[in-house]
Specification:
The chain is α+β, with helices and mostly antiparallel strands. It is 35% helix and 27% strand. The chain has one domain: Histidine-containing Protein, Chain: A (2-Layer Sandwich).
């Protein structure tokens, strides 16, 4: 299991295109991924990384920190891909 935190850089937050890219990578990996937006250092909700509706419902904004948990074998490539999506200012 790998747990990491990242700041969402996209000006639109984790919405539409960035959320779709995130979910697509997770679904293709076959690994279990949980996304939690952080508010004042504490989780403020939780979503299955394979569900676009669940991820969008979190309402993650630009500049917000998210905690991502990746479970399964060989998570390193997926972790790198997800960190890249979250850090992409183009969204």
């Amino acid at each position: 299991m790998v747990v990491f935190e990242a700041v969402v850089v996209s000006p639109v937050g984790l919405h539409a295109r960035p959320a779709a890219l995130f979910v697509k990578k997770v679904a293709a990996s076959g690994l279990k991924v949980t996304v939690e937006p952080m508010v004042d250092g504490e989780p403020a909700g939780k979503a299955d990384g394979k569900s676009i509706l669940s991820v969008l419902a979190l309402g993650i904004k630009s500049g917000q920190t998210v905690r991502v948990t990746v479970e399964g074998e060989n998570p390193d490539a997926l972790v790198a891909d997800l960190q890249e999506i979250l850090a992409d200012p183009e969204g």
